[in-house]
Design a protein that fits this description.
Layout lengths: L3 H11 L4 E4 L24 E7 L7 E4 L2 E4 L9 E4 L5 E4 L2 E4 L5 H18 L5 H10 L2 E2 L11 E2 L2 H10 L3
Parallel strand pairs: 1-2, 2-5
Antiparallel strand pairs: 3-4, 6-7, 8-9
Length: 168
């Protein structure tokens, strides 16, 4: 029996909906089953898992309490990187504010925004076509090779260029 979450993702997949997920912030390789959690470890083709890349171009990591933490990664389960530090919006005492923060929850909306741009120039694209364009147009970084599937960070300009010339 499928979980309600898996059923919802399957439902979205059947309807061509792209789901952009934050890969998580445990500094773990989620290709390893023991580090895998859901929904990041569902195998649906309409999912893009996003890692956080620091401003220096490397997979984001930091040390706290003697442990290395940071963005989750995985050459098979994480598809794309994006900048995810030094900005966020939040509610503080019911007032909208901007604060400095980081995490894959900041990186995933960057990819969602670029996916929306691609869809705006190619409304005929399926979820898997958008995903492929985002991965193929990413800026490849040596630091991400073998860590995430595309080996790169999202690139809005290159994604739009590729989408416009994409042939089925």
């Amino acid at each position: 029996m499928l979980s309600p979450l898996q059923e919802a993702i399957d439902y979205a997949e059947d309807r061509g909906v792209l789901i952009v997920l934050a890969a998580g912030n445990d500094g773990q390789n989620i290709d390893n089953t023991e580090n895998c959690f859901f929904p990041q470890c569902f195998e649906n083709e309409n999912i893009i898992n996003v890692s956080q890349v620091g401003l220096d171009g490397s997979l984001f990591s930091y040390e706290t309490g003697g442990q290395i933490r940071g963005s989750n990664y995985g050459a098979n389960r994480v598809h794309l990187g994006a900048i995810g530090e030094n900005y966020t919006t939040a509610l503080y005492h019911n007032v909208s504010t901007y604060r400095t923060s980081n995490g894959t929850s900041n990186s995933a909306p960057v990819v969602s925004g670029v996916a929306a741009l691609v869809l705006s120039v190619r409304p005929d694209f399926s979820a898997t076509e958008i995903k492929q364009v985002l991965m193929d147009s990413s800026t490849k970084l040596e630091s991400l090779k073998g860590k995430i599937e595309s080996g790169g960070i999202v690139n809005a300009y290159e994604a739009i260029k590729l989408a416009l010339k994409f042939k089925r």
